[in-house]
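Now for one record.
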Amino acid sequence: MPAEMPTDSASASAMPSTMFEKIWNAHVIEQGSADDALLHVDQNFLHEGAFLAFAALRKEGRTVRRPKQHFAVADHYVPTLGREAGIAGVTDPEVRGLIDLLEQNAAWGGIDHAGIDDPRQGIVHVIGPELGLTHPGMVITCGDSHTSTHGAFGAFAFGMGASQVKQVLATQCLWQRRPKLLRITIDGTLAPGLSGKDVILAVIAQIGAAGATGHVIEYAGSTIRSMSMENRLTVCNMSIEAGARAGMISADDTTFDYLHGRPFAPKQQHWDAAVSYWRTLKTDEGATFDREVHVDASALVPMVTWGTSPGQGLPITGHVPDPATLSGDARRAVESALSYMGLKPGQAMDGLPVDRVFIGSCTNSRLDDIRAAAAVVRGRHAKIPAFVSPGSTQIKREAEAEGLDRVFIDAGIEWRASGCSMCVGTNGDLLKPGERSASTSNRNFEGRQGRGARTHLVSPAMAAAAAVTGTLTDVRRLLAAG
């Protein structure tokens, strides 16, 4: 039990607790010094980058302790074109080797694996919730920083390095330092054309790219409660871009409706018992946080990043900042970003020419995201190269069943297979040096989408608006025009 918590169980139960505290306390196996604790891990996800952990495990003569609490999927390196050829369509032998190696390691460890041809294949942080592997109250890990996505279900989910992946494979537990708690309350009704992506970009712009360092964020408020699971997943996904250890949203009927009937969700009487428990995991009235932040969602407009950090964002109606108004490190940071991005102080964001559009990634590749983009594209034609990469094979099938693929194809936008794609570019989907993109991904640092590439983070609707106008464009104008 954490050092600052009372040891008397009756006193402990009487104290108001946050959602995070309830989950943390339920998973402590052993308390270390100060705030360090050994936590049980309920679910671990693996992708191609796990090869180092498996190699270390084999070298030490260890095995996977609890294979059923792991799930592996190929996502970072799988191509989005030529997938009909399966693994044979991967032309780079090194990349093909990594995809093959994940399958071999999963088979060796007895771990369920969704390979390139598996109908469950997709981006790890998309298929986890989609398959019902992600549940409220869980501790979830993965060797990927955007594991915070799963916190949208009321789970404590975080990324880790290769040595920690090995530890979880071998022991199903992990030492962690207890973080501080930050509650961000977002109230108000979003204007038409806005989504969870605009909300989280506005939050990061407000608190900064390091504004939540050392904290777990709990998102609360009427805006969050009215969001779909897809939008909640987007918000929690980018918590890491504010420096947070994780982002979390307490489970409610929206959560339960999403999970019910999914392959790995509890069944029959186990479902009722699970929901009863999950309902207890909300933050108690009177529970305290180390910090509080409030955001008025009704005042938000579509967001776009202008610099080389997710924290360098502003409304599409805004203008690039002038470093002359700043001093010290802040001034140097803006000067460096403007130089790399090829922008001038005071330049308007609305109307800035874009070379390419990418709609996809673990941030914005779900069915709701694709629908939002299609609503803007329908009846229009792309003026610049653009493509859509659904977050999973299942989402691709569902979108095609709705005819959304035809909306994009008829507009001259490529409809591709699922994978991480141009979010990180390890599969070869890259921008050319100097090219500027409107991207629904989560990071815009130098070289993220290719050497010399310039990335502007936007929502799916804003990305679609850029595709059909050739510029960063306030999507509200297009929606108003019909």
